[in-house]
Amino acid sequence: MCTETFSYLASDQLYAGALHIFTAFEVPVHLFGAYIIIFKTPDKMKSVRTSMLSLHLVGAFVDFFTSFLTAPVLILPVCAGYPLGVLGMLGIPTSVQTYFGLSFLAVLASAVILFFEERYHKLANVQRSSGRKSFSRKCYAIGHYMFAMLFISPCYFNIPDQEIEKLTINERIPCLPEEILSRTGFFILSIENREMYISLALLISVLVPEVLFFVLSIFWHLFNIKSQSRATNRLQKQLFFAMCLQVYIPFMVVTIPAAYCISSIVFGHYNQAATNLAMSSIAVHGILLTITMLIVHAPYRQAVLEIICNRSKMATINNPQIWKTVNETKL
Questions:
Q1: What residues pair up with 74 in beta bridges, in sequence order?
Q2: What is the maximum alpha-carbon separation in the chain?
Q3: What CATH number did the domain enclosing 49 receive?
Q4: pLDDT per residue as tens digits for the range 42-91
Q5: Which range marks the domain in which residue 15 is found?
Q6: Total domains, the chain
Q7: I need a surface site. Which of 78, 118, 135, 159 has the fewest CB within 10 A?
Q8: Where are the bilayer-spanning segments (predicted)?
Q9: For the chain, percent helix, then strand, then coil, each to nearest 5?
Q10: Number of helices and strands (H, E) in the chain?
């Protein structure tokens, strides 16, 4: 289905400009979030600081990679597109950018699983935990990251002939402007999307059951453990619910644009303005993850408020002196 006439809302200028604005906001926010985790994590949260920082850094990097380094323009419902980011300007092939872009999204999903796996290990093995990862857990983490980097590789076993498939795209999307197919770095990964479906189905079938297992297991441990004091158990429940919100809220925000992209592929609908809007929304996932983390975790929220209040207090202290100087000058 092809219903679009090309407009400014679908232009590269607006899309790239929006992503660059996001980058300008994301970088300081992510750096501030890393500072809070490293220097403001209280003793009662030391056990989750490493996993919290790992998730934060992965999310920040995926944000930066998407909005600044690649800035991908997707042409749905086929798996095709071209980059507007720095890597494209440097001459990095679009096929390479696409591979790593999809892989890094899977790495982010794996980081979420390892985020909860770390917490599950602390609760389930509280008596045996030495503070260090066992060899099996290290292999588990490495295996997940290797799987994330390789899951999309079947799509690259049979990359179609680019010139021939451009003709196919013209037939399937007759309203697609001709100049788009001539964009620098235009790359077609798949027309039928069969390999993409298989790769995504494999990724989901592996990762979703795992995250459900860890979340439900943590929930069961927190509400069935009897060997801890009420205060300790209450703090652990608060931490767990904050961790869930930290991941859940950004996930729900990007669900709608992600669902649109999937529906466009399934139903064969082309609307470049809507696709660009969806990709722009997905690109802010990392900054939402950081802001949510700073809000839902009480110690981090308190640290942020203290920093803001201290700056406000310094401004209040300085202002009377300024007015006093001004008044004395007038006299």
A1: 81
A2: 84
A3: 1.20.1070.10
A4: 888 888 888 899 999 999 999 999 999 999 999 988 889 999 999 999 99
A5: 8-296
A6: 1
A7: 135
A8: 14-39, 60-84, 96-117, 138-159, 196-219, 239-267, 273-296
A9: 80, 5, 20
A10: 11, 3
